[in-house]
Every structure is written in structure tokens, then in C-alpha cells.
Amino acid sequence: MIRNETIDAMMNRRSVRKYTKQAPSDDVVETIVRAGQQAPFASQMYSVLLSRKKKAPFGAPLWFVICVDAYKLERFMKVRGWDVVSNDLSLLLLGLQDAAYAAENMVTAAESLGLGSCYLGEGSMSGARIAKIAKDYKLPRRVLPMVELVMGYPDEEFAPRPRYPLPFALFEDEYPELSDDDVRAMMKPMDDGYLEQGYYSRQKVKIPIEDGRPDAFTFDDYSWTEHISRKWGQWVPSSADMLAALRERGFDIGPRSELSEE
Ligand SMILES: Cc1cc2nc3c(=O)[nH]c(=O)nc-3n(C[C@H](O)[C@H](O)[C@H](O)COP(=O)(O)O)c2cc1C
Question: Is the Cβ atom of 118 under 6 angstroms away from ligand 1?
Fold first, then answer.
């Protein structure tokens, strides 16, 4: 793999969950957000909210919320005498990308300036979290909090977390048939990497099994694929709460709205 300063900043980035009290200067904050803005966009359908006053998770001095924002788009279209007719699902899918690419540019810019960061995805699973952010920041309708992002100077040191081996991420020309052995080969470096670093055993973190089945794993052999399986094998089976939150924010997607138009 080729290495240079940019690649190194990306390869050494880790989600940081412990920060010093040092407040980043205005110059640093503005540079990070400005670099975020320079990400590719479909229609700049995002806004970045920042709080330096609220007590942020992990003791971080900066607490951003990256939002999908169709409101500003519609405001400037109105100035030009246009209304949006595009469907909300397409707007949302594009807006999510605009917001995500900007957020990740911010993360990389922060890393290059010696800051660490961590995303917080509760808003993608909780209508209440979306409503709370909307209220706190007085968001107009058509602005949807997408992800929270805390930042600051790291107060912990550890190796970057592993990833799937490249042959399971890059499929040239054709998606391969994956045997169970292939899948195990994909899982192994993830689980071995997390076990070697002792991520879960150090923090004594395990997602409980909700249906009362016995838990076959101890903190010493519980690892990443088990952790992730316990999330998506148990959490938020219904989309009703999120669809209601989206409607509340002014985005009307899904079968109910399609039916009501007929
Ligand atoms: C959309 C999204 C949501 C996330 N939500 C959380 C979260 O709620 N809490 C948390 O501690 N980390 C969260 N993370 C950070 C991931 O856990 C982390 O990126 C992943 O485990 C890989 O670790 P690394 O970033 O150190 O390489 C989130 C990351 C993303 C991209």
C-alpha cells in the first residue's frame, strides 16, 4: 500500500472515546467545517450544527450534528420561482450522501490537525433523539439530524481497529459467490483484531441477549461479529418510529404516503 500524509491520516484514524479538556481554537473549528464543505455534493443538502456549551459524550469539547437539509434548497429555489417536485425518498438518499461526505471530510481534516472524533448514530434508531435535537436547535421542517459527531484532542492511545480483508471489500467486475468458509475468512481478522486489542474485555461491554437464551460468550471471547450480530439481530425491528420522526421533520416517505396519494 502506498503511504503519504493524507493516506496516513486516514489509516491512523480511530474513533476516540476519551478527550482532553483542551478547547480547539475557532480557527481549527472553522478549518474543519470549511474542509467538510469542500466534499463533493449533489445539492449541498446538509447543515452542520455545533455546540460547545453542552456536556458532550466522552468529554469532547465539540459536539456536531450533521443534518440533511432540504430547507435551504427549497428557500433558494423559491427565490428563483421554483418548487420541489422530486420525491422525498430520492431527496433524502441524496441528502444523506451530501451530509455524510461532508462529515467524513470533517473527520479527516480533524485527524490531520491532531484531533480525534467519534460518530454517534442514535438518531438513526430513535425518533425521540431526532425530536430532541430538532427542539434544542430550533430546526425548521425539512431539516433532519442524520448523525452526531464529537471531536477534540484525544486522551487515549490505541491501534487502529481492523477491517475486512480487501478481497471482501473490493469486488472487481462481478460480485463473488461467498461460501461459509469465505465468510469465516472475512470474520476472522475482525474478531482476532478486536480480541488481540481486548476492546470488549477491557470495557466489560457485551450487548445482552434479550430473549433469555443462555449467553455462550465471556468477555474474553465475545468479539466484533458477535457484537454486531447482537445489535442487528435484536434492535429496532419496526420502522414505524423512524417513519413518524421523518414525517415530523417534513420528509414523507414509505408506503403510507404512496397509498394516501392514490
Ligand atoms: C453512522 C455511525 C454511527 C456510529 N455510532 C456510534 C455510537 O453511537 N457510539 C459509538 O461509540 N461509536 C459509534 N460509531 C463509531 C463506530 O463504532 C466506529 O467507527 C467503528 O466501530 C470502527 O471503529 P474505528 O472508527 O475506530 O475504526 C458510529 C460510526 C458511524 C459511522
Answer: yes
